[in-house]
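Anyone up for a design puzzle?
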């Protein structure tokens, strides 16, 4: 079974998918979010779960550097709780401190243009969240 990784932001959701053996994470897509249209987000994720045979979803939990959970982390936890009403698979939270910063640095070092970075940064962060989980699990 596969694992889906999510980097949940206010405007986008970066999505990554594991291979069938659960060893590697690949970027899948970036979902655009609209305020007041949260049900569309949950339905899109439920469709991806069904389409790819996902049994676990890993959602990035943005913690403060001291390990506490601030407003962004609380939003991610609420998102996970609500998502659990739309999918029947296991949902896990994963510490995502600095994943977006690391993804940005990796894209800069690969000489990706600023415009292109903006289009793929959330998907790359989801890959890093998922790969961290897979490496830890495995």
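Challenge accepted. My sequence:
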């Amino acid at each position: 079974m596969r694992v889906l990784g999510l980097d949940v932001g206010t405007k986008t959701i970066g999505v990554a998918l594991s291979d069938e053996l659960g060893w590697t994470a690949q970027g899948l897509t970036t979902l655009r979010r609209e305020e007041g249209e949260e049900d569309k987000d949950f339905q899109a994720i439920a469709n991806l779960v069904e389409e790819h045979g996902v049994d676990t979803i890993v959602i990035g939990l943005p913690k403060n550097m001291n390990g506490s959970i601030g407003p962004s982390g609380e939003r991610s936890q609420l998102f996970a709780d609500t998502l659990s009403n739309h999918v029947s698979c296991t949902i896990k939270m994963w510490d995502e401190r600095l994943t977006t910063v690391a993804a940005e640095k990796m894209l800069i070092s690969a000489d990706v243009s600023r415009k292109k970075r903006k289009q793929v940064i959330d998907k790359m962060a989801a890959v890093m969240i998922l790969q961290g989980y897979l490496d830890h699990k495995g």
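A detail worth pointing out: The chain has one domain: 2-137.
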